[in-house]
Amino acid sequence: MTPKGPYVLCTVNTAPERAKRLVGRVVEDVKEEYTIDYRANSERIEDVRAMCEREQPNVLFCASMWTEEESNEIQRIAKETVPGIRTMAIPHGLHIEKGPDAIVAYVKEQWPVLVGC
């Protein structure tokens, strides 16, 4: 079966290497079902609009270090910038409370709902 996608993914995470590593794990785990093209990360909320304008992602993740209010702001900016973008905020504190494996599991669990598959 041909994988669904490609999905252009961007992240908003103050630890870009961690974001790249965790997204890489997700991409590898789901490659038989989905093609995910991880393009860029923004470390600051102020840079989300420029990243979205430049990369035109159709999916954006907010990392778990952002508060609910910050995640809402990030998602609002992304949706204003790229019509139809699908966004997801990883629950605040998930990485600190349960570790990187919990992040990967959460993203893999939420992905089909997020992209409508």
Mean pLDDT: 95
Order of helices and strands: EHEHEHEHH
Biggest sheet, in brief?
4 strands, parallel
- Into which percentage range does the β-strand content fall? 15-25%
Low-confidence stretches: none
Which structural class do the helices and strands define? alpha/beta
The span between the termini is 14 Å
Rg for CA atoms: 13 Å
Number of strands: 4
Taken from the alpha-carbon principal axes, the silhouette is: globular
- Helix percent reads 40-55%
Widest sheet: strand order? 2-1-3-4
**DSSP helix count?**
5
How would you characterize the overall build of this protein?
By secondary structure, the protein is α/β, with parallel strands linked by helices. 50% of the residues lie in helices and 22% in strands. The protein is built from 5 helices and 4 strands, in the order βαβαβαβαα. A 4-stranded parallel beta sheet has the order 2-1-3-4, sandwiched between helices. Helix 1 links the parallel strand 1 and strand 2. The longest helix has 16 residues. The protein is globular and about 40 Å long. The protein starts with a strand and ends with a helix. The relative contact order is 0.20.
Give a brief rundown of this model.
This protein is of the alpha/beta class. The chain is built from five helices and four strands.
Essential attributes:
117 residues, alpha/beta, 4-stranded parallel sheet, 4 strands, 22% strand, globular
What layout of secondary structure does this protein have?
Layout: E1 4-12, H1 16-30, E2 34-42, H2 48-55, E3 59-62, H3 68-81, E4 86-89, H4 94-98, H5 100-115
Parallel strand pairs: 1-2, 1-3, 3-4
Helix pairs in contact: 1-5, 2-3
